Amino acid sequence: MQLTLDGTYVDRMMILRVVLTMVLVCSTRSSSENVNLDMKEILESAKEIRFMEWLREVRRRIHEYPELGFEEVKTSQLIRSELDSLGVQYTWPVATTGVVATIGSGDHPCFALRADMDALPIQELVEWEHKSKNEGKMHACGHDAHTTMVLGAARLLHERRHKLKGTVKLVFQPAEEGKGGAYHVLREGALEKVQGILGLHVSPDFPTGTIASRPGPMLAASGRFIATFRPNYGHLLFPHPVLAASMAISLLQQAIHRETDPSQPKVLTVGFVESNQVGSLTPDLVKFGGTFRCFSSELQSYIRRRIKEVTEIQAAVHGCSGTIDFMEDRLIPYPPTMNDKGLYEHAKRVGEGMLGKENVKFSPMIMAAEDFGFYSQKMAASFFLIGIQNETAKSGTQTHSPYFVIDEEVLPIGAAFHAAVALSYFHTQLPSLLINTTNFHVS
Ligand SMILES: [Zn+2]
Ligand SMILES: [Zn+2]
Fold first, then answer.
1. Mind listing the pLDDT tens digit for each residue in 106-149?
2. One biological process GO term for this chain (predicted)?
3. Which residues line the annotated binding site for Mn(2+)?
4. How many whole angstroms from 337 Cα to the centroid of ligand 2?
């Protein structure tokens, strides 16, 4: 064929190829520019003065009346009343106080945005106009901001509901702090048809205007324990439970670090040791307890088993009895939070389009635990940190501190990011959409 072509024909082919390439490049560029324009338009809407004032006012109302896990009655009421004003439908109660709102077609695919609602048993020491009015309780982990941002996303999405090619579930869940609210939301079947979920957490480690995350393991699995030692008085030795407990504490450190893969991060922390005696008398009761963290369910099970074995064996060696309580009936252990690669990449692209590439950071793995890990066991999940560090707002203090402060400029950014990830989710072909979730169950 080539031999029969004259020069003119070859030139025409080349011109055609160049034109086709230009059309392709231009259409790709314009579609990605459109996506970025959409992202920016959503952020601009959220930053409009009246929208921002509404966000700030909602957050402050929640902040003034913090409630502990499964007691978020007033917070839940506030959420429902805001959803009623917006005209957004919801299911309530979910897992005691939770609310799950629905926006969109009602059909597949289904994507969820998650906010936690609970506060901490901490007395707020920040002196400001909207200080906690509930003695000994404080939103010191930013869940007041999380709830506000998802309410903001509800408003942004409701205004753009004609653009939704699927269904968005807005999950206002109770009891993230230690009580596993996410586990109970899933157990009630509230998210049966959801394929992907996004969660945000405010972070004083990153400046306002930035977000951060990573694919794969993001947050640790966690468990708690209390070991109790009692002397066996019939024993020929002089059993000393303090010695038994001390040996067990040392050996636990050795067991965790010498018996497991050194490239796998993990930690076991003993946070307290106590006995029922002071002075020179031998106590008849010694307790110690703490927490353990790692990034895989297998390692979590291994550490749990070794805590029990080391405690019981060291107690026996020292003529004592040793028992272990993992408190799992009250404080459910959390699985690791694993970010789905496809969903992480999708949210990252949305963040880059909205905030600029330089403002989407790569996060290290973090030893904090979150009940968001339960969602990541069931569906494609992605958890992002959202920066609140701002010298002017004096918001550099870590969470769980009585001096914790939020830079409220984060509210429109979080609302817009939530909404944009959900809106654009339906236009992507993520492999995670194909994940079969029917075999999953929460026990
Ligand atoms: Zn917290
Ligand atoms: Zn938190």
1. 888 999 999 999 999 999 999 999 999 999 999 999 999 999 99
2. auxin metabolic process
3. 141, 143, 177, 201, 400
4. 13
